[in-house]
Amino acid sequence: MYTQAMDQPNSPQDGLRSVPGASDSRQTEFDARMDSDRKIEPQDWMPEAYRKTLVRQISQHAHSEIIGMQPEGNWISRAPSLKRKAILLAKVQDEGGHGLYLYSAAETLGVSRDALLDALHAGKAKYSSIFNYPTLTWADVGVIGWLVHGAAIMNQVPICRCSYGPYARAMIRICKEESFHQRQGYESLMTQMKGTPAQREMVQDAVDRWYWPVLAMFGPPDADSPNSAQGMRWGIKRISNDELRQKFVDATVPQAAILGVTLPDPDLKWNEARGHHDYGAIDWDDFWAVVNGNGPCNKERLATRVKAHEDGQWVRDAALAYARKQQARALREAA
Ligand SMILES: [Fe+2]
Ligand SMILES: [Fe+2]
C-alpha cells in the first residue's frame, strides 16, 4: 500500500482495524512540525485551510511580481543612459522570473497556473496595491527601487523561513535579487541628488508621492488584521504588520538623511523611550480604495496584463506544438 492510500483514513470495509482519530493523528503530526519549526513539503499531509491560505498568498505574490513589471517597464524606452537602461531591463526581467518561481511553488499545492492567471485576468485575484500608482518621472523609478523594494525586502526576508518548503526556497533567491533592486534605486537617486536643483526637486516630489503608499504596503494595523494570528501559528507569517512597518521606518530615516530628502511626515520623530521613530497616521481609506480597484492605475494595469497574455498566445501554442513534435519523434525512434 504505497502512495496516497497511506494518507487516507481507514474504513471498516478495508478489513483493517479502523484507527480511531486517524485524521487527528495527522493533525498532531502537522502541529508538531509547526512547533519544532520543521518544513512542510508538497507530499506531506496539511490542513485544507493551510493549503488554501498558501495558494492565496503565493499566487497573490506571483501576481504582484508580474504586474510589478509594468510601472518601471514604462521607463525602459526612456531611461536616460545605456547603463540605466541595461540595469532597468535586468531588474524588470528579474520580476518576471520571480513570478515564475512563485507560480511553480503554488502549483506544488495542486492548483494550475492557468487557473491562477485566469483569476488574475478576471479581476478576482488581488496583487499588491502599490503597483496601481503611476510612475510620472524618471525619479519614480529610483524611488520605487529604494522604497518599494526596500519594503518588499522587509516583508519577504522573514518568508525565507516560511513553514512551506517550496515557498521558503523560492524566497531565498528572490530576496537576493530584491536587494539588488533596492540598491540600484538608491544609487540612481544619489546620482540625481548630486545633479541640478530641478533633478533634486524631481526626487523629492517622487518621495512625497510614494512614501505613504509604501508604508501601507505592510498591510492594516495588527489590531485590524484578523488572519495574522493564524498565519503566525502556521509559520507563514513571522513578524507582524506593525513591527515590519516600524523596522522599515527606522531603516529609512537615516537613508533619507544621507540622500538629502525629507520624508513627508510632520509627525516623524525619534522616540527615545521606545527606541524607535514615531510616525503619523496612515490614510487607510485611500489604501482600501486602491485595494478595491479604485486606484489611479488599476484598470490600466489589468488591461495591459490581459493584452500581454493574449498577445503571447502564439508563443504558448508554438511551444506546445514543438513539445508534441519532439514527443512523437521520441516515440517513433523508440519503436
Ligand atoms: Fe520581485
Ligand atoms: Fe524587485
Task: Please explain how this structure is put together.
- It is a single chain.
- This protein has about 325 residues and is mostly helical.
- Helices cover about 65% and strands about 0% of the residues.
- The protein contains 13 helices and 2 strands.
- Strands 1-2 form a two-stranded antiparallel ribbon.
- Strand 1 and strand 2 form a beta hairpin.
- Bound molecules: fe (ii) ion (FE2) (2 copies).
How is the topology of this model organized?
Elements (H helix, E strand, L loop, with lengths): L21 H14 L12 H20 L1 H5 L8 H26 L5 H9 L16 H19 L8 H29 L3 H20 L11 H6 L7 H19 L9 E3 L4 E3 L5 H11 L3 H14 L1 H22 L1
Antiparallel strand pairs: 1-2
Helix pairs in contact: 2-4, 4-7, 6-7, 6-8, 6-10
The structure holds fe (ii) ion (2 copies).
Quaternary structure of the protein: single chain
| Proportion of residues in helical segments | 55-70%
Determine the strand fraction and express it as a percent band: under 5%
* Rg over CA atoms: 23 Å
Low-confidence stretches: 1-20
Helical/strand content category: mainly alpha
SSE sequence, one letter per element = HHHHHHHHHHEEHHH
Overall shape: globular
Strand sequence of the main sheet, in spatial order?
Answer: 1-2
* Total number of helices: 13
Strand count: 2
Distance between the termini: 33 Å
User: Which ligands accompany this protein?
Assistant: fe (ii) ion
